[in-house]
Design a protein that fits this description.
The chain has a two-stranded antiparallel ribbon. By secondary structure, the protein is low in regular secondary structure. The longest helix has 5 residues. A hairpin with a 5-residue loop joins strand 1 and strand 2.
Length: 64
């Protein structure tokens, strides 16, 4: 048999959301994603990115 204190466990909740800063981009606006690095087109036509682009030195980025 359970007591009322055991049956009333506190519910877990998600933390409150922080204020979001959302950028709005218009249809003809330019939006640069330089920190994502270049898009690589593979031989089979698929696209990928260099995952560690933000960690690479400038000389490594120049050699890509």
């Amino acid at each position: 048999m359970t007591t009322t204190s055991e049956s009333k466990k506190p519910l877990l909740a998600l933390p409150a959301t922080a204020e979001e800063t959302v950028q709005t981009v218009g249809v003809n606006d330019t939006f640069k994603l330089k920190e994502l690095g270049p898009v690589v087109i593979n031989e089979d036509g698929t696209m990928s990115r260099i995952n560690n682009w933000h960690e690479m030195a400038d000389i490594e980025k120049a050699n890509v």
